[in-house]
Amino acid sequence: AADKIRLIPQDFFAELCEQIIQHLNHKIPGINTAELCQRIQTSGVDINIGDLAKVANALSFLFSTAARNNLSTEELVTSLGSGVSTLPKHAVQVIRHVWNEQGKAIAVSEDARTTATVGQFVDMKWKLGVAMSSDTCRSLKYPYVTVTLTVADPSGQITDKSFEMTIPQFKNFFRQFKEMASVLETV
Question: Are residues 44 and 16 in the same domain?
Answer without folding.
Answer: yes
